[in-house]
Amino acid sequence: MTQAIYQGFILSRQQYSSKNRQGLTLCYWLSSESGPIKVVVENQQAVFFIAQQQLPLAQTLLAKAKIKVSFKAVNMRHFSGVDCTACYFNDSSSLYKARAQLEEQINIYEGDIRHSDRFLMERFIKGGVWVTGEALQKNGFIEITQAKLKANPNYTPQLASLSLDIECNGEGVLFSVGLVGNGLDCVLMIGEPQPHSNTFNIDWCVDEINLLQKLQRYITSNDPDVIVGWNVIEFDFSVLNARAEALGLVLNLGRDQQPLTIRTGHYTRLTLPGRSVIDGIDTLKNATYHFDSYSLANISYKVLGESKLIQADNRLSEIIRQFNHDKLALAAYNRQDCILVNRIFVKLKLFEFAIVRTQLTGLELERMGGSVAAFTNLYLPLLHRSGYIAPNLGDHGLSFESPGGYVMESTPGLYENVLVLDFKSLYPSIMRTFCIDPLGLIEGLNSPESAVAGFNDALFSREQHHLPKLIKHLTRTRQKAKDTNQPMLSQAIKIIMNSLYGVLGSKGCRFYDPRLSSSITLRGHEIMQTTRKWIEELGYEVIYGDTDSIFVNVNERLNATQCNEIGNDVMHIINKRWSDSIKTRFTLTSYLEIEFETHYSPFFMPTIRGKKIGSKKRYVGQIDKNNAKQLIFKGMETVRSDWTQFAQEFQTELFKTLFDQQFEIEQLNNIIKSYTKKLYAGEFDKKLIYRKRLGQNLSDYVKNIPPHVQAVKKYKANNPDFDVKRGQIIEYVYAINGAEIYNANNTLNYPLYIQRQLEPVANMILSALGVLPNSIQSTLF
User: Fold this and answer.
1) Is domain 161-348 in CATH 3.10.20.580, yes or no?
2) pTM of the predicted model, to two decimals?
């Protein structure tokens, strides 16, 4: 062995008890420029905390249960002020037993944090790491023992990636597995060898056992850092694991011949030592990409302009048919899905996003969601260094609810010039300005004479806090990312900053306290109301406001240049007033920043359907972008997935006409008549499809059966082989006999589409112009 120093990026983390039970062993696999590295840290102890005053009882109970533990006094206390004692265990099993033995009589703190996570967290290691120790070259990797680790925030890995996709029948019996990437282009197919002229390799397998054995050899040989796919954890790997168990096999797909393990619960947790498995759907959602459907077919079409090779209504039936009668076609389909996933990851920079998210939060590459876990990773080590341990859920003992964001009543109507001013990152700015922070709340309550007043009796320390400093760091880093053209880093920081309030307002977070969340939202209410008052004092009309945005109506005779000047003037005046006000009232620096964001010309704010009062979170406006007119819809039918393409196109054409300077009401009537005529002529048949996700399994719909489920059950009655799963998007239409699965032969109920899709859109606009809704039906329909 030789002593060496390496830098790398953590791909996987594990912990297990040593054979002699003298301590936990932690295992971290790294991607590095020297190849895969296995890092072993031995003789570790898992820990949780209890109140020092409960130590005698804990000693008695654990001694009686013969659970080996060591107690250590620590200079840390609970938020209530009581001093705490650390309880150390040589293995996870002892910690779990002790927790079960004590928790009915003793409050246990931080007993749910895995030591493999805590070890990294307390060292501020977020992906990139320096490691030193005794290095030994093994078959395909370097193993480092007696390892010491240190954060390396500047290391960015070059990950070797492989795309995996399986095909199987409805019961999960395997047909084939596609593998594309990192120099590999292959489909493993069960069946007799067939001659083919494909440009990729088909490796024919005798049966499922042979297929799984070959899959293991291919992954071991290819040795990717990352395996990607579409729903790859919940479906592909779960099916592979289930089939291996059923056939008596162990899938050693990890590095160093380590097995794949899958645990199910609230979510499916996959462990593949030495590799990360990243799901495309989860990564898209976490990067805040929004699509009406996250199916691979829809995303590949929307992002790449490419379609899957099987587009049949019942894809499973076609897959089964191809496996039985056209295996070459199935192989091409299987491979194409792998290729599409790879191209989506590259096109949308999903690898870059996953890496920078880990570098910011310390979460595993594959860990998606996890806002609460990310917050804990960032905040807990800072809290410990301030002498506190984390509270448990509900330790605050308060039961009131904090309100949501402030939404003003709107003034409906058609406007020529509307300016929108947005507070930049309002909630993080409030937290930074008013020192809102879990530790700050405790320290503020302990020293009220110098604290900053919040709401609901909250007081915040001016000096003892962490979130304001963290937000300052994130704000600067994001600006640097923008300046240096790092869009994925900028986006990841934006998501984290926006999640800070959500985490503190979530009852699933150990740091939740309604005094924290209400001090953020109620301060937001005050800021919005005061800003409205100041703008109106300047002589302008505020017609709407929502959370951090204010909509201002200005003179209809002004041109775009004049409107922009007003928007910028108002922006500077409001920012100056907030700076002065906060300095005067609180002796604090204001980090509130309102920006003049948009000039809409024209702008339409509708009423609530069937009422005269203005709606909320629904409007449409026109902007000038690159010398071209562009419509912006918010909450309208055009951007909602529960409205058909027919209704969306109809609404868009109406607004284009309404916003035209030469507009006459007869033009709207002509559009309505034209759409009605074309509808009855069948010209919109392919645009009358509704798309709705199955929220639960088909058998779970018993009492309330929505239209898309009615359509599926009706179709399945005549097609027993038709299979759908929870989460699947159902395409259906309204036919004469009710909701039906869409096909080319549906007899469509055109009057119903007029009633439900055309009339509401037309009425919304025409009634705002003084045309009574009932006259529309009688004269046009």
Assistant:
1) no
2) 0.89
